[in-house]
Amino acid sequence: MIRIPYIVAIDGPAASGKSTLAEKLADFLGYLYFDTGVMYRAVTLIALREFQSINDELRVTKLAERIDIDVRPPSVQDGRKYDVWANGEDVTWLIRCPEVDANVSQVSAYPGVRRAMTAQQRRIGQRGRVVMVGRDIGTVVLPEADLKIYLDASAEERARRRYLEMQQRGEEVSFQSILDSMRRRDQIDSTREVAPLRPAEDAVILNSDGITAEEVLEQVKTLLADC
Ligand code: CDP
Q1: Which of 12, 105, 155, 171 has the fewest Cβ atoms within 10 angstroms?
Q2: What is the distance between the alpha carbons of residues 44 and 139, in angstroms, rounded to a whole number?
Q3: pLDDT tens figures, 143-184
Q4: 152 CB under 6 A from ligand 1?
Q5: What is the pTM of this model?
């Protein structure tokens, strides 16, 4: 018999397939899908714009405390899965630009920024019936989650996926620059002092190398019986 988890936490490094899995799983369960990375990306985008740099930790933290971030159903049919609004502006695609990619991990390592984002994420997660995705959901944001998945894949496979995504959006990027930037981000994310990227002790570790998103979903469905 399938027992349905109330809260699902999915963590893992960049482009391991977390978002695709979470979206499909949320669809299957009829739950809300919430990608916490968009919040750190929105803070980074607005900080770069307002301060031209993200190096002033105090200013960036104050910004994180007052920024108004909203995630809503898609308002435009341009391939987006949801809208991301920051301070009343649609930033859905802007938060995916290379400048944000290059700076988001430094912003996410600021303890005050994490405090502000984690509080909002917990409020959403504790309502239940949610699949929440990030780096620290199973370890810090929602340690009470009844199903925790840590989805991994090799750096080359992850960079290849991100490269194809960007090519499809018509962006000109080199594979090597994506691989380098992703390795840099993983390094910062897994060595920071607060809420580093790592599997929770009770997480199920999966690897998406060489298997399709559907196959990963099938593996997760078999886990539902045990949680
Ligand atoms: O989509 P991708 O895996 O490239 O990244 P993301 O999930 O959008 O997250 C972007 C960045 O936000 C990560 O590299 C982390 O630095 C940070 N992040 C975090 O620290 N904690 C989370 N719960 C989610 C994202």
Answers
A1: 171
A2: 23
A3: 999 999 999 999 999 999 999 988 988 888 899 999 999 999
A4: no
A5: 0.94
